[in-house]
Amino acid sequence: MFCLSRLPKLRPLPRPLLAAAHRLRIDLRCSISSSAPPQVSPRGDEEECGDFLPWLERKAGVEVSSCLSIGKSAYGRSLFSSKAIRAGDSILKVPFNVEISPDDLLPEIRSCKVGNVAKLAAVILKELKMGQDSDWAPYMRCLPQRKEMHSTVFWSDEELEMIKESSVYQRTIDKKVGMEREFSVLRHALDRHFPEVSKDMEFEDFMHACALVESRAWESSKGYSLVPFADFLNHDGLAKAVLLRDEQKQFSEVIADRNYAPGEQVLISYGKFSNAILLLDFGFTIPHNIHDEVQIQFNVPLQDPLFKMKLYFLQRHCLQITRKFGISKCSADNFTIKLVLMLYFPYIRCH
Of 47, 69, 309, 320, whose CB count within 10 A is highest? Predict the structure, then answer.
């Protein structure tokens, strides 16, 4: 059985000098990794998604969960314990046959020269376009609308200006450029092989679908997969519970890492992500994030008589160096420090 992380783990990103998302309209979807959980409403989502779990279990042909129910918290759609849960209990099992992957696309679309995120986004666009005729209609209704998405690609120019000095700013610009390029390629393929999907499709629709994939999908043997119901679980940076994947038994599973009282929100870890990754791909940050990092850039001239000593200490104390020193003649190099910010740089203030 393998432990799964949500997509951003595949794209490590240096942390900007950013401690929290200072946005008036941001609605944090994820649990903070400290103190008490927020006020919750275990029955607050019944009108919209109350029939989702029974529908999913009928589609799967097996029970998915007997101890979780869908509701809303301050972080959006969430899962709550419907009865007492003990550490070590299996709280959900989602069979592979009800996971969504790029395999659901026509071969002509799967062969497009775009990434797996864009391919899975195309599946979402196809199902959304089909509306109530889609086999996944109950799931599609439960996915966040574009106005509910807060990753930085949806920020206005004015809002992005607030993080212009951070690496997230440039990463956001680069991501939107990449999305535009893939949209052009995918749009051409859809026009040719699936015109009913591409008709009236705008770039903003594609961007929304990509954001859904990046914030909800997990790595799988099929590339990336959406795991319905499991993706309603919110993130706690200190949680030990993760989504596990059993290739032999063909299901994804979550094992509780602690006891839960009835009505309590159940949380898992999406992965060991810095606030930069969380903000870029999920649209929130966590106070006191133990996985935070800061990127430092400075000059280490090759002619420096202490070059080898400096390189030794950097490699010894930094978990990641983004460029190998001494390979090029450029004197400016980047490296990333993780988990040492408070120890070695107590005077740095994050904005």
Answer: 69
